[in-house]
Write a structure and sequence with these properties.
mainly alpha, Helix Hairpins, 0% strand, elongated
Length: 91
Amino acid sequence: MTDSRRPRIDLEKSLAELEDIVEQLEAADLPLEKSLKQFERGVRLSRDCQAALQDAEQRVQLLMGNELRDLDPETLAGREPEAEPDEDQDD
């Protein structure tokens, strides 16, 4: 379940800020101290976004009940599941 102590984040804003931080760090024109602060902020944002995505996944699973458990992850990703080789088949 979701942790009520963890504040909800605006995922889209956080991802946009994270992209900005990555661009700043890739430009390599920041002083070291500012680069470290931006990196730390990026790590926090990344963790917050991951937690928000996990919370959303749990909510979807709760709403869908057991229906999602029966689906193959490849099917959920829009790919055809790979056929499993038949171990009993003699060649």
